[in-house]
């Protein structure tokens, strides 16, 4: 990711802090965040995985869901893994204001990087495709992140 990110465009209240002098994102987190949120976000940004029948899936996946998606995809392993592992970036938070396109694209790109690193670290003997739908102008719910094994 670029180092020249315009964080005030992503976190609208940053410029308002310190009587209009602004605040850095890290300092804002110190003031506004909490440890419970940090722990919860760790599960999004550094997800846990399980292996079922040689599928690598996000933790929480079930054999029943796997069988349903295998049937729905006609047994296509790639498609089954991709659909079971996909997340909509806009669904990270289901309350509050809808995120902007810039926000979901920033988070999606970051999550793609961390997911790629996590899969490589945990499964060094396997090859994965990690895909983030990163096109301008999509419906906010169409920004998805997923992965599947490359065979």
Describe this structure in words.
With 151 residues, this protein is α+β, with helices and mostly antiparallel strands. Strands 3-5-4 form a 3-stranded antiparallel beta sheet. The two termini are 28 Å apart. The chain has 2 domains: 1-33, no CATH class; 47-149, no CATH class. Helix 5 (63-72) packs across helix 6 (77-85). The protein is elongated. Strand 1 (49-52) and strand 2 (55-58) form a beta hairpin. The longest helix has 22 residues, at 101-122. It has helices at 7-10, 17-20, 25-32, 35-45, 63-72, 77-85, 101-122, and strands at 49-52, 55-58, 87-88, 128-132, 144-149.
SSE diagram, text form:
Elements: H1 7-10, H2 17-20, H3 25-32, H4 35-45, E1 49-52, E2 55-58, H5 63-72, H6 77-85, E3 87-88, H7 101-122, E4 128-132, E5 144-149
Antiparallel strand pairs: 1-2, 3-5, 4-5
Helix pairs in contact: 5-6
Keywords for this structure?
single chain; about 150 residues; alpha+beta; two-stranded antiparallel ribbon; 7 helices
- What is the count of structural domains? 2
Measured by DSSP, the beta-strand proportion falls in 5-15%
What share of the residues lie within helices? 40-55%
Strand order of the largest sheet: 3-5-4
Nearest-integer average pLDDT: 95
What string, H for helix and E for strand, traces the elements in order? Answer: HHHHEEHHEHEE
**Could you say which structural class the secondary elements and strand pairing correspond to?**
alpha+beta
Number of strands: 5
Q: Strand count, sense and closure of the main sheet?
A: 3 strands, antiparallel
Whole-Å distance between the termini? 28 Å
């Amino acid at each position: 990711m670029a180092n020249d990110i315009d964080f005030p465009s992503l976190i609208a209240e940053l410029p308002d802090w310190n009587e209009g002098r602004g605040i850095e994102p890290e300092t804002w987190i110190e003031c506004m965040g909490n440890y419970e949120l940090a722990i919860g976000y760790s599960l999004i940004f550094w997800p846990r995985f399980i292996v079922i029948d040689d599928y690598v899936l996000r933790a929480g996946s079930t054999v029943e869901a796997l069988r349903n998606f295998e049937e729905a995809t006609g047994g296509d392993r790639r498609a089954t893994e991709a659909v079971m592992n996909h997340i909509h970036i806009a669904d990270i938070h289901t309350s509050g204001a809808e995120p902007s396109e810039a926000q979901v694209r920033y988070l999606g790109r970051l999550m793609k990087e961390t997911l790629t690193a996590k899969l490589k670290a945990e499964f060094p003997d396997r090859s994965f495709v990690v895909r983030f739908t990163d096109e301008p102008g999509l419906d906010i719910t169409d920004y998805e992140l997923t992965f599947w094994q490359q065979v």
